Amino acid sequence: MRDFVVPKTDTKILGTIELEYAFKLTAHYDPPQESHTPRGTFRYQDIVSGEVSGARITATVYPDSGGQYDTVRSDRVRDVDAHFMVKADNGEWLYMEHVGYRRTDGYYRAIAYIETDLKGAYEWMNNTTFVVTAKESADQREVVFYYYIAN
Amino acid sequence: MSAVNEGTGSNDESISRRRFLSGATTAGAVALSGLTLSDEARAQAAAGHTGDAALPPNWFEGPDPSIPKLGLRWAFSATVFFADRVMINTMDSPSGRGYTSVGGGEIWGPRLQGRVLPHSGADYYKTTFTTYYMLQAADGALIFIHNRGTMRRFAAHYERGTPLLPPPAPPAKQDLVWTRFRATPQFTAPVGPHEWMSRTVFVASSQRQANPDHTVFTYYEVL
Question: How far is B64 from chain A (nearest CA, A)?
């Protein structure tokens, strides 16, 4: 391995980040199906339906467009990986990807990445980083996600 | 300042690396065997970290109290120096792929100190960046970072309550443009003092600096 000499710089903490609340999404899932894999317990939940509401968007989750594909780790934290499609009330489509963790207290922290029409009403979501918090219902069939823009 | 720098004037709590290093007071013996750190990083690691309260968290809330609050707290910063820059095809091609290799760098801040493992990976970017490389904490622990980034340009720096507007069409003065550059890392840290990084979501601001070619990442822990 080559070595590296760190040059002299006087760098600073640069750039604060401000979160701005955007919308919430209520996801309705089928019961989880678990399987044992070399990586740990794989946990699949089909997304049956869902609703998106906020000042700048009203939409529904496209039924069976994906779901949550989590892995339960040895420390009982779940690696969360959720993918599905959303259709806005103006007919435009959005792809939503969520990557994060469900901690053992039932609360989630995740990052969401959204891709949508470059000429559409929700173009502002492209290349926008969303910080997400969520809470699972006791029966694990409903998860409410809250999305904040990382400005 | 290059065109991709963000406005920095709004950060009243800006702390320079040197000031952070000189302000570290907690005594603590840290094993540094086999690590090549700069004098500053070595001094910082030997002094231990200043604790979680180095900067207070910022809490954000929605328009009604049913929406859970989210907090951000500065965890650490990384000064990453780049070596090679290569482009396969062009950025506007579907097969466009950039390669910017990581030469090395330093990690400094309240919750992690150490270095970027020299020549341990790169940014293999398309229109968004995707980096894979290794960090090495002052105790020697190897931490894998997979970092995804997004970037958008706006006419002015974000201000709460004010909508963000698109930048003026080129050729506009670059100082009229604010580039919102956000990085979202996933860390794989070994069981032990750094394992909290494997269950924590982070969001970072990222600013490219010239002479020498480096980027400063400021990592905030999502509380």
Answer: 10
